[in-house]
Design a protein that fits this description.
It is elongated and about 70 Å long. It has helices spanning 19-29, 31-57, 59-69, 73-84. Helix content is 70%, strand content 0%.
Length: 87
């Protein structure tokens, strides 16, 4: 039988908070770390968007090049990204 989880003594449950208030709290505790973490997170998002747009923009030229040369460049590039990406 599964037993219900019990909070440790002395643990005060927090009220639900917005993302902005949680970030503000983190910013007060660790100003440099929170700011750097946010910048890194946005850079990762931006790089994913650029990669997706790049694959979309080059699909026709690479299809023509792959058809002419038979190198399967786009397929190899997508397989490489899938192999290298975490998760």
């Amino acid at each position: 039988m599964i037993e219900p989880r019990v909070a440790p003594p002395g643990l005060v449950p927090r009220k639900p908070a917005s993302a902005f208030s949680l970030y503000g709290e983190s910013l007060r505790d660790r100003p440099v770390g929170a700011s750097l973490g946010l910048v890194v997170e946005w850079l990762m998002f931006f790089s994913a968007v650029v990669l997706a747009l790049g694959l979309f923009a080059t699909r026709v030229p690479l299809r023509l090049l792959d058809g002419a040369l038979g190198l399967r460049l786009r397929e190899r590039f997508v397989d490489f990204i899938a192999k290298v990406s975490p998760g």
